[in-house]
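Record type: monomer structure entry
Structure origin: computed from sequence
Chain ID: A
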Amino acid sequence: MVDQQVEDIEMPENLKLNTFLQEFHSDCTHPECRFGFYGFAFGQSPFPVPRLIQEALIKNVNKGHYAAVPGVPELRHAISKYNKHYFRMDVTPERIYVGPGTKELIFNLLEILHGTVILPTPAWLGYLPQIRFLKKNFHMLSSRANGKIAPNDLKRLALRLQDRQKILILNNPHNPTGLLYNKLELEEIADVCRELNITIISDEIYAQTTYDFSKFVSMGKIYPEGTFVTNGLSKSHAAGGYRLGYVIFPQHAVDLKAQFKKILATEYTAVSTPIQYAAVAGFEISHEMDEYFKITRNIHKIMGEYTYNTLTAIDGIKATKPEATFYLLADFNAYSPELQKAKITTSQKLAEALIVHPYHTAIVGGDSLVLERTDFSARIAYVDYDGSKVYDAYKTQTPKSYSERVEFVQNNAPKVVAGLTMLEKFFDSLKKDTIDELMLMKNNLKIPN
């Protein structure tokens, strides 16, 4: 007999989509489509794990002992120095706890923090399932005006909530839009949070992917007394499979740290010891890691520029212009009448229509991003290429001009290019079908030209 609480939980949208794509791939009978699909759905960095981390893992593979619950001291010290060097944050190692990925750490924080959760939308598809699993009260906060939450909207919503304490989940840089909050925007949000006793969980897993890195500011620097900052290896170090993240606690949160340690010890004891020692090399300051961050963020920027320009050149399609990450949010709502006519009534049905022959294009639809089911928006992840080859190609001949950057994408990311062509083909066919239908009606009614 399954516990009803588990029975009520839906499979996370990313896993649901993965299952659907695997089944589709095995069922497709067209021999020319053995390549599978054009993958705009999955947000995984395609680059190799940095050599320093790989070598450190090999060196420490014999460490089979349990680690301390908050993390090995060497790693916590390395993370402390990493945050000071890159993010200008003076964080003592005692404020840092290590966990098996930021996803788990955010879940743990939501376990111990009392209050109503404020979830800005669109949102990463992993937040809402966790909130629901924990049966937390929550309210959505739309950020569709310019892709970012407005302080006045946050204040109006918070004043309506009865809970004395509120928890804002802030994702910066932002998945799925690729947008970045600047310092002034963060300060205005922090002012509201101070006034209304709002705790922030600031998910900064994409910080190192900020294209102009000088523009990134951590909310932990702006609002240190009320912000939990989470970060890790998965996006910046292309090491999602290592399952290692960290959380920085707010200043003076002594009681919360004790409660958090109790939760971690109960749920998973500690993160894999060899992985922790391998991660030390990734968080230490070195010329090799600096070069890795610079090259990977520049490649993400080139791919994002190409994807944004190609999409927005299609009549009627809008998109957020990414400043970080490897995503943008595409808006297909201008085609709503044509989609409705084709009996594509939800963003999920749009995703299903795009994956079938001949389009073979995988996207994450708006309903997975906590938007209305009828919102024809989608997250586009532009990482469907061989990261090792692209990394080497960039080092061999770094593209400088716009035309060189376009050529770089066309030569090194053929599936990204072909997938965008398929999106254009899909929406052109919708428009053509509508025009053909109107012409047929006109002819049947014998309407003169």
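Annotation 1: The two ends are 69 Å apart (CA to CA).
Annotation 2: Confidence is low (pLDDT under 50) at residues 438-442, 445-449.
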